[in-house]
């Protein structure tokens, strides 16, 4: 298993814990990433949103690509998987900038291609927002242009969304960056099977992840591509006893006061007690991070991770809080004992 973590560009991951002790700042991010290399983490995912999706849209959020460029210059081994939304970046100009960052990083850049979902953000910034199927048509063209600039001396393209005419990208990346992407629709999975190198999923139990991996493997084989990697988001809590881990889970999922922007949350509180508990967890942690239930003792977490490995998962993309302290603990007690 490879271990990655989400760079805390939003100042944390818990929607109902206002201060997690990790500021959305360059200093915290730099120090965390350097320590993550020392602790043995393989990769960091740097999310790209101009508005803060976790703490509220009026709160600070770091820019993904300038942060990635800075991290490239001050780190040595960690893979920098940076989210990119095609409707926010012209592909030819992006290919040039990303190639330069990959050069600074010595070949450690990777992309997490995200077909945008937040219409209000695009409206606020005056940017194009496509309906669902058009998003993947745009992303498919966008990837063709980026790949063409990275692999050909001159690249010409005429599509529905983009055009280039003998465009040049030099210097090129040290090596072609790995392209990660996620999505659960038919359009998304068809595009990923045809054009990407890795499939990333929201959190789910291993029994739900296994058929998703099997499905994508079959699609990839049908498309004639080489085998791809599989990653999943998860929130991790490791403690010396199961009781301690459960107390921490209760702390992060207890809703004391709803932050601004969650006026519709009352609709989530209907149904059975079990449904209510699950919905509170979905609210508290993004990307279905608590569904994998990486909550417990080191031995329990290693057993659950082994189940994911058996299902075909290659990469865990972890969120924790407070991040530096919890990442160090996880590295020592779970990764270090593997």
From TrEMBL:
Domain of life: Bacteria
Xref: Pfam families: Bac_luciferase (PF00296)
Limits of the Luciferase-like domain: 3-314
Keywords: Flavoprotein, FMN, Monooxygenase, Oxidoreductase
Protein name in the entry: LLM class flavin-dependent oxidoreductase
Species this protein is from: Sphingomonas citri
């Amino acid at each position: 298993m490879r271990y990655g973590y989400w760079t805390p560009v939003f100042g944390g991951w818990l929607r109902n814990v206002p201060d997690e002790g990790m500021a959305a700042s360059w200093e915290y991010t730099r120090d965390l990433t350097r320590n993550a290399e020392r602790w043995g983490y393989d990769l960091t995912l740097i999310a790209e949103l101009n508005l803060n999706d976790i703490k509220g849209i009026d709160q600070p959020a770091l820019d993904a690509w300038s942060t990635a460029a800075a991290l490239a210059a001050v780190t040595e081994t960690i893979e920098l998987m940076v989210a990119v939304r095609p409707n926010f970046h012209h592909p030819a100009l992006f290919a040039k900038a990303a190639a330069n960052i990959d050069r600074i990083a010595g070949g450690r850049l990777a992309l997490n291609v995200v077909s945008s979902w937040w219409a209000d953000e695009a409206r606020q910034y005056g940017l194009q927002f496509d309906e669902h199927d058009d998003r993947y048509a745009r992303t498919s063209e966008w990837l063709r242009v980026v790949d063409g600039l990275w692999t050909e001396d001159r690249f010409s393209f005429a599509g529905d969304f983009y055009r280039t005419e003998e465009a040049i990208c030099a210097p090129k990346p040290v090596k072609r960056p790995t392209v990660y992407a996620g999505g659960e629709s038919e359009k998304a999975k068809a595009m990923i099977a045809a054009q990407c190198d890795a499939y990333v999923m929201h959190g789910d139990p291993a029994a739900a992840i296994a058929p998703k991996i099997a499905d994508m493997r079959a699609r990839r084989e049908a498309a004639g591509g080489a085998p791809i990697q599989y990653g999943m988001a998860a929130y991790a809590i490791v403690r010396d006893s199961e009781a301690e881990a459960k107390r921490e889970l209760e702390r992060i999922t207890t809703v004391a006061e709803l932050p601004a922007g969650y006026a519709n949350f009352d609709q989530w509180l209907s149904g059975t007690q079990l449904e209510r508990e699950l919905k509170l967890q979905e609210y508290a942690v993004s990307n279905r991070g608590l569904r994998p239930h990486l909550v417990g003792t080191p031995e329990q977490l290693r057993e659950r991770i082994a189940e994911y490995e058996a299902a075909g998962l290659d990469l865990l993309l972890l969120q924790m809080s407070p991040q530096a302290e919890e990442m160090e603990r996880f590295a020592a007690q779970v990764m270090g004992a593997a």
